[in-house]
Write a structure and sequence with these properties.
single chain, 6-stranded mixed sheet, 4-stranded parallel sheet, 10 strands, globular, binds pyridoxal-5'-phosphate
Length: 354
């Protein structure tokens, strides 16, 4: 039986037999072959796979790291945690804290959180406080508070978060039956996840479980692309709220993942993000939140430059970080409203085209 990522990958994680495991059976998310997207890639027999992290218990990959962060907080006898969040970290922290019966405090940037995520933090009983600033301001406050008071920080600068998240890389290699992808595409916000995946791939290779490593392809949103531009972005702007980050916490580690792997970190426009978002939904049947589709948008952009042609039969994995229902407003804005017709058979049949 699947009992979550700590149980499955404990040999790779900083746990002992006496670590209490707080889990919601996260992980084990599907790696879905994408026939339409594979056809869009300019290369010889390309294969594109989607790692659908939206199917974790709270709807994003954050659960992989949160199970470990909260388990370690309990092991270390903490009774409260705090995070700054653009949404998914707070949803996950609130849920795992409820499970562990500890207090959870969330600082969010005022007005910049997708509705679904705020609902999650609140319904799980977290104390949510909106600050009149952006994510980076909220994170600075959280750092100051956790420096001075006995409350654990569970943002991705908590090393246990990264440790837990690296299990995503293990799963991909297990699902590819001991093979590693040639390219690993991923959205970049605070850059914890790209850091975690790179760590995971390297550890799997050290253990001889894979024979090589993927090139890491990170994608930021054009209006929130500090790593691409080489400088902090004061007022990051993008519809992809989960990657609306102007000063990534794991900036240097993301650059290391890029350089060690021979990959790149590039940016995509909101239009490219939304086009990929719609394509995933109406061509592949996979509903994600906008930030997630940055990985796919980036791969499509790169493909147009002939980037993937140099590898024969390239295997590309795009991480889809969060579920589409997190941001229902964006979905509604992206489609036509249902047409209203009179209540009779003829009118309905006429609309359908019979
Ligand atoms: C947190 C998050 C990201 C960004 O991940 P980082 O580790 O901050 O780079 C991207 N997409 C979604 C849906 C997220 O929740």
């Amino acid at each position: 039986m699947w009992k979550g990522v700590i149980d499955k990958y404990k040999d790779f994680l900083p746990v002992t037999g006496s670590t209490p495991i707080i889990t919601l059976n996260e992980g084990n998310t599907p790696l879905i072959y994408a026939p339409h997207l594979s056809k869009c890639i300019d290369a010889v027999t390309p294969e594109l796979f989607l790692k659908y992290e939206g199917l974790n218990p709270t709807g994003s990959f954050k659960d992989r790291g949160m199970t470990l962060a909260i388990s370690k907080a309990i092991e270390e006898k903490s009774n409260a945690v705090i995070c700054a969040s653009t949404g998914n970290t707070s949803a996950s922290a609130a849920s795992y804290s409820a499970r562990a019966k500890i207090k959870c405090v969330v600082l969010i940037p005022k007005g910049a959180i997708a509705l679904g995520k705020l609902a999650q933090a609140l319904i799980h009983g977290a104390q949510v406080i909106a600050v009149d600033g952006n994510f980076d301001d909220a994170l600075n406050l959280v750092k100051e508070i956790t420096d001075k008071y006995p409350i654990k920080l569970v943002n991705s600068i908590n090393p246990y978060r990264i440790e837990g998240q690296k299990t995503g890389a293990f799963e991909i290699c297990d699902q590819l039956e001991g093979k590693h992808p040639d390219f690993h595409a991923i959205p970049v916000g605070n850059a914890g996840n790209i850091t975690a995946y790179w760590k995971g791939y390297k550890e799997y290779r050290e253990k001889g479980l894979i024979t090589g490593l993927p090139k890491m392809l990170g994608f930021q949103a054009e209006g929130a692309a500090p790593i691409v531009r080489g400088k902090v972005v004061k007022n990051p702007k993008t519809i992809a709220t989960a990657i609306r980050i102007g000063n990534p916490a794991s900036w240097k580690k993301a650059e290391l993942a890029r350089d060690e792997s021979g990959g790149l970190i590039d940016m995509v426009s909101d239009k490219e993000i939304l086009d990929a978002y719609k394509m995933l939904a109406d061509r592949e049947g996979v509903f994600v939140e906008p930030a997630s589709s940055a990985s796919v948008a980036g791969v499509l952009k790169l493909s147009k430059t002939g980037y993937f042609k140099k590898v024969h039969n390239p295997k590309i994995v795009c991480v889809l970080t969060g579920h589409g229902l997190k941001d229902p407003d964006r979905a509604i804005k992206s489609v036509k409203e249902p047409k209203v017709v009179p209540t009779n058979l003829q009118s309905v049949l006429k609309e359908i085209g019979y």
